[in-house]
Amino acid sequence: MAENAIVVSDLEKRFGDVVALAGISFSVPTSSVFGLLGPNGAGKTTANRILTTIIQPDGGSATVLGHDVVQDADAARRIMGLAGQYAAVDGLLTGRENLRMIGKLTHLPPTQVRKRANELLEQFGLADAGDRPVRTYSGGMRRRLDLAAALVHRPPVLFLDEPTTGLDIQSRQELWETIRNLVADGTTVLLTTQYLEEADRLAEDLVVVDKGRIIAQGTPSELKSKLGDTVVEMGFADEETARRALSLVTGADGARPEREGPLVRLSSSAGAKVLVEVLRRLDGGGVVPNALSVREPSLDDVFLSITGKHAEPTEPEAQPEKQLARAGGRR
After folding, report:
1. How many CA atoms are closer than 13 Å to the CA of 303, on its beta-carbon side?
2. Same domain for 42 and 92
């Protein structure tokens, strides 16, 4: 099996005068979870749509298990699955009927369609609900069924676009465990997510995209280590007090302070030492925080540091496009 399941080289895409992708390159190792992160409008969805053969690039190339997504699009579609931000299942059909329908669309032999549907209902904990209309399912059940539908034809490469949007904590954790099991069985997953905790928990490697360019790349641990080993957050009564606090703590031992409204955040490699110095400086200036927390860096800190903004929900995907890619149909 190839070392890299997905290879992206200098991928470019324009929409009129808007540059959606400005030559991004990355590789996704086989049997791994790879995270694709970035703020709204960064180019994540455009990259996903190119990789899943929905649109064509203006430059560069991309392959999925050696199949060029432009020159060999039909073959590429046959080996990939796509589960997007919104569950694309038919609420009027039962769970079992949905999976059988996908089996027929993906050209499974008729003798395997029924068996595969039963296997997936069992695997995703939906066997007891398999003969109920999907409109009666909870959000978590719909998401699990949607992921099951993307796996009907056993694709070795799976694209997940915001897979846990709208799920409660328990349902999200259950889906994370399902994804881990898929990777353990050999599936390669490209994960686009707004939940940075999700990328931290699942992704072995990731890239951060902004304005069509890759601005950071590495493992979650590598990216977090660039901020140091301590993050101090201080909340103040108002923005004026926060501005005063920012001026007082600027220059503290190795600290990189920033203000966000009435919140002052700083990261440092000096550990607890920086906290002592920061509190001493604030006390000397007569400024007292209303709230104080000390923690290790998170991917959200990394994201904010390199993009200047918090992670936000990505734009909704087009449902007909999703079904087309899933079914391996022609454009």
Report:
1. 26
2. yes
Residue 282: inside a domain, yes or no? yes
Q: Is residue 273 part of a domain?
A: yes
CATH number reported for the structural domain that contains residue 154 in this entry: 3.40.50.300
Buried b (16+ CB within 10 A) or exposed e, 208-234: bbbebebebeeebeebbeebbebbbbb
Q: What is the pLDDT of residue 313?
A: 47
Residue 30 belongs to some domain of the structure:
yes
pLDDT: is 165 or 191 the higher one?
191
User: Within this chain, do residues 233 and 252 fall inside the same structural domain, yes or no?
Assistant: yes
115, 122 contact by CB (below 8 A): no
119 and 139 in a single domain? The answer is yes
d(CA 320, CA 82): 12
Q: What residues does 159 pair with on adjacent strands?
A: 82, 190
- Distant-in-sequence, close-in-space partners of 250: CB < 8 Å, separation ≥ 6: 257
* Residue 206 belongs to a domain: yes
Torsion 192-193-197-198 (CA) sign: negative
Question: For 279-293, what is each residue's pLDDT tens digit?
Answer: 999 999 999 999 998
The span from the CA of 247 to the CA of 303, in Å, is 24
| Residue 67 confidence (pLDDT) | 97
The Cα–Cα gap between 233 and 312 comes to 21
Token pair listed for 180: 């881990």
**Euclidean distance between CA atoms 189 and 264, whole angstroms:** 36
As a whole number of angstroms, the distance between CA 300 and CA 305 comes to: 8
Q: How many CB atoms lie within 10 A of CB 42?
A: 24
Residue length of the chain: 331
How far is it, in rounded angstroms, from Cα 185 to Cα 283? Answer: 56
